[in-house]
């Protein structure tokens, strides 16, 4: 079980990181005091940490889903026995 979760963690983080790095938006809209919006390009450092944050969030959701599915399957097997 631990090996399976570790494997899923590495794979989901890798896929989420690659996809969010590749498809992510490097610009964000900023609004000044007078209400005007203008685009701002993120630095490489900010973009990297934004991508890592998204990847960690996606990985946590995937792990929670896998854990719940395994828990439900285990309870179903115990009830049928």
Give the SSE map.
Blueprint lengths: L1 H22 L3 E5 L5 E5 L2 H37 L1
Q: How large is the share of residues in beta strands?
A: 5-15%
Give the averaged pLDDT, no decimals.
91
Alpha plus pi helix count:
2
Secondary structure class reads alpha+beta
Number of strands: 2
Oligomeric organization of the protein chains: single chain
- Run of helices and strands: HEEH
The helix content, as a percent range, equals: over 70%
Largest sheet: 2 strands, antiparallel
User: How would you write the strand order of the largest sheet?
Assistant: 1-2
Give the low-pLDDT segments: none
- Approximate shape: elongated
Structural overview:
By secondary structure, the chain is an alpha+beta fold. It is 73% helix and 12% strand. It contains two helices and two strands. It has helices at residues 2-23, 44-80; strands spanning 27-31, 37-41. A two-stranded antiparallel ribbon has the order 1-2. Strand 1 and strand 2 form a beta hairpin. Helix 1 (2-23) runs antiparallel to helix 2 (44-80). The chain is elongated. The model has no long low-confidence stretch (mean pLDDT 91).
Key terms:
two-stranded antiparallel sheet; alpha+beta; 81 residues; single chain; elongated
